[in-house]
Amino acid sequence: MKLSIIEYMNYIGGSKNSKCVEEGESILNEQHLILAGKVRETSCADYITLYGLCLQTNAPNLNPYEITGKLLLGTSVTVSSMLCTCKDGNSGKCKHVSAFLLKYIREDVETLEVISETDKKWVTQRDLMKDVPVAEMPCFSGKIKKTKITIDADSVLDFFCRNLPTSTIAMHRKGNTKGPSTNTVVEEMKK
Questions:
Q1: Domain assignment present for 147
Q2: pLDDT per residue over 3-24, tens digit each?
Q3: Residues 66 and 30 in one domain
Q4: What are the SWIM-type domain coordinates in residue numbering (predicted)?
């Protein structure tokens, strides 16, 4: 059983052009929702207690936001309540909650991963922020083209010596190991 789009939109109180809907979809697509599931000990046949973690979009190196909530189960899935630890999270309708609920429009709520207390404790800042090459980041997928560049070191050195004639390396190549005179620097700055 999945959360319906109608139930999601009714709960969020938005339209397809609402900021929290657009930003929620972006968060989900960029995989900032790093943990999402149900809490075993508080779930039963009538409802599911939810728990999730979402990276802070403006500060991903800080601790993630915690998302909690409850879905009522019946003939359809209904959102009972949602909260997030972000500054807008008390309303239960922030972009992080939006991303969390969008996940359950796409996936069956009955197959939710069970999140234990150990899972919550082990997902730390250190575990979240692993070095990933830019080309492997989901938001850049398919946008980066690899090109092999051949660089001639002598050409680069010549370029910089021509454009920075008063630099130490340029002066050294000209045979002047003492460096430029003050007059030479002033004249070059006037050009």
A1: no
A2: 888 898 989 987 777 888 999 9
A3: yes
A4: 75-105
